[in-house]
Design goal:
Layout (H helix, E strand, L loop, with lengths): L1 H9 L2 H5 L6 H7 L17 E2 L13 E7 L11 E3 L2 E5 L6 E5 L5 E6 L21 E3 L2 E5 L4 E6 L5 E6 L14 E3 L2 E4 L11 E6 L5 E6 L4 H4 L7 E2 L2 E2 L26 E3 L4 E5 L20 E5 L6 E6 L16 E6 L2 E9 L4 E6 L5 E6 L7 E4 L11 E3 L5 H4 L5 E4 L13 E3 L4 E7 L2 E6 L13 E6 L8 E7 L4 E8 L8 E3 L3 E5 L4 E6 L5 E6 L9 E5 L2 E8 L7 H5 L10 H4 L12 E6 L3
Parallel strand pairs: 1-34, 15-20
Antiparallel strand pairs: 2-40, 3-4, 4-5, 5-6, 7-8, 8-9, 9-10, 11-12, 12-13, 13-14, 15-16, 17-18, 18-19, 19-20, 21-22, 22-23, 23-24, 25-26, 27-30, 28-29, 29-32, 30-31, 32-33, 34-35, 35-36, 36-37, 38-39, 39-40
């Protein structure tokens, strides 16, 4: 094994000998609140802005400053980015990129419109969304639906380089953003519902050359684990840690896709992300823990080698993907300042870990309706330490194939899906858009065919018994694992949040409202109805001394797939169409950007 690792990492020797710095252009932009150059606003994924011109006292005066139609329907996830006097806006498939002049009412400076095969559309799970662009070293980076990764000249839109990250004919697609780290661009892949063998890949930032690729499952040399140095809950994972948890070669179609968010700690030189569901959704067909699906990874961006991992949902039976964002904050726990990673998992538990070594510090339900597990075992001396204690009634494994397990909370789309939270250092709280949804889940046997759906379950979704609301917007104390306040919403809150130094937190609703609430109390301070339902992420920037807030609206995503794709079968959209059928009474399709400011 030592010889294997000497061979595996020899190719990165030149990289390792170079200075270990984060990408300077991104770091510089992080310190300038006027700009917003990556989707989370910063490497720590806190989605916090130091701008305070708009505050809790004057936000009620906020009004539209200008708007822009994207010319595309379907779900608009992600947010614009702003670099200097230019705003870059993206769309769902076909993934058009616009450069807009902030000095001239959003005049189009250039437009990039890739030519993609429309056959990629039916291969994309849960709508044709894209979570946005990133900017570094004068280039705008886009990962297209067909997995083509493109670097564009920020001034002209000319293609600097492009490379192909996957094959849609095998079920590999993309919905995610990318992350520039140092001289590399980190890129994930989608396709867990098609039995894709998923990975994270590092490309050279300036040439597009593949530097390393780390799979979620498989042999140690493919998942880039050192059996003696890579740890889980403080212990070395040992040899073949993934292979031992799969039957035969099932890991080759094991899923574990990486379509979520990436964060980076420059001081620790570690990048963090999560992996998704194992394939298929029928747990009877894949015995074992199915490592390392449903896992938090901490990797060295120079080599891809994993420092530590933590699997949140071993042997997933409910499609609780672990891809949600990993905000990095420093807070006190038990009186001691810790370097924390906080993660609101689809499975309904809010996790707080030490990001240096993966020590599990907090694991509590962030929606009281969660019932599939009673708790996460926090006893370090227990044989089930760190594992959720599954309630047999809601185990689709125990209940068996062709049996409809009813009343499981949360539904497959989780207590929160990819819609990112925000953190305010002023309050010490996280602001979390959530789903308050349960499901019936019936697994069935399915065979694998490359490029064909490999799901093996039928679902239906609905609010918890006795409740009418399908969502909440909550404030969460990650040091204690407690909800501080909660604002109910009729539908799931499928928009990313934004926290600001003005003590205002913004989020959007599926009906199309952009809302501002008091960061301390959750009191509603202002709202505005945009042209379509909001599944985009709120961002803010400053131009010529004036603060602006911007949001993409355009209903869709998993929750809005019925509207986006014109589906009517209540079991379609993996169960979401029936659950969100009433949404059509409140909004309609449309892709638009709305920018707000205080009046002169």
């Amino acid at each position: 094994m030592k010889r294997l690792y000497a061979s595996l990492f020899s190719a990165t020797a030149l990289t390792l000998s170079a200075p270990a710095f984060a990408n300077d252009s991104v770091l510089k932009a992080e310190q300038n609140p006027a700009e917003w150059v990556i989707q989370a606003g910063n490497y720590a994924n806190t989605r916090y802005s130091k701008l305070d011109q708009i505050n809790e006292n004057n936000v009620k005066k906020l009004a539209p400053a200008w708007t822009f139609s994207t010319g595309v329907l379907r779900g608009h996830e992600g947010s614009p980015i702003v670099v200097g006097d230019v705003m870059y806006v993206h769309t769902p498939f076909p993934n058009i990129v616009y450069a807009l002049d902030l000095n001239n009412d959003g005049k189009i400076l250039w437009k990039y419109e890739p030519k993609q095969d429309p056959n990629v559309i039916p291969v994309m799970c849960c709508d044709t969304v894209n979570r946005g662009l990133a900017y570094a070293d004068g280039m705008v980076f886009l990962h297209q639906a067909d997995t083509t990764v493109v670097a564009l000249d920020g001034k002209t839109g000319a293609v600097v380089w492009k490379t192909v990250n996957g094959d849609p004919k095998k079920g590999e697609t993309n919905t995610a953003t990318v992350l520039p780290v140092k001289d590399k661009l980190l890129v994930g892949i989608s396709g867990g519902e098609f039995g894709v063998h998923c990975h994270v890949t590092a490309y050279d930032l300036h040439t597009g050359k593949l530097i390393w690729r780390a799979y979620s499952e498989g042999p140690d040399d493919q998942i880039l684990f050192d059996p003696e140095k890579t740890t889980s809950l403080g212990k070395p994972v040992g040899a073949d840690s993934s292979l031992k948890t799969w039957k035969g070669d099932q890991w080759k179609t094991g899923g574990g896709c990486t379509w979520g968010w990436y964060s980076y700690d420059p001081k620790l030189n570690l990048v963090y992300y999560g992996s998704g569901n194992p394939s298929t959704w029928n747990p009877k067909q894949r015995p074992g823990d199915n490592k390392w699906s449903m896992t938090v990874f901490a990797r060295n961006p120079d080599t891809g080698e994993a420092k530590w991992v933590y699997q949140m949902t071993p042997h997933d039976q409910w499609d609780y993907d672990g891809i949600n964002e990993m905000p990095l904050v420093d807070q006190k726990i038990d009186g001691k300042m810790r370097k924390l990673l906080v993660h609101f998992d689809r499975n309904g538990f809010g996790y707080t870990l030490d990001r240096t070594d993966g020590e599990l510090l907090v694991a509590q339900k962030y929606d009281p309706a969660v019932n599939w597990a009673s708790k996460v075992d926090m006893d370090k001396n227990s044989p089930t330490y760190g594992r959720p204690l599954v309630v047999a009634k809601y185990s689709t494994e125990d209940n068996g194939e062709d049996v409809n397990s009813k009343g499981i909370c949360p539904a497959a789309l989780g207590s929160k899906d990819e819609q990112p939270s925000a953190f305010s250092p002023k309050t010490g709280l996280f602001y979390v858009p959530t789903n308050h949804v349960c499901m019936d889940y019936e697994p069935f046997r399915v065979s694998y065919t490359p490029g064909q759906p490999y799901v093996g379950a039928t679902l239906s979704m609905y609010p918890p018994a006795g409740d009418a609301n399908m969502g909440n917007f909550i404030a969460w104390d990650a040091t204690k694992g407690k909800i501080v306040w909660s604002d109910p919403e009729q539908f799931s809150v499928w928009s990313g949040a934004l926290a600001t130094a003005g003590n205002v937190v913004f989020y959007g609703t599926l009906e199309g409202y952009l809302k501002a609430v008091d960061a301390k109390t959750g009191k509603l301070l202002w709202k505005f109805k945009t042209p379509s339902g909001i599944i985009g992420n709120v961002m803010t920037y400053e131009h010529k001394g004036k603060q602006y807030v911007a949001i993409l609206s355009g209903v869709g995503g998993w929750a809005g797939i019925g509207l986006a794709a014109g589906l009517t079968d209540p079991h379609a959209g993996l169960g979401a169409v029936g659950g969100y059928a009433a949404l059509s009474n409140y909004t309609s399709l449309g892709g638009s950007l709305t920018v707000f400011a205080l009046p002169e």
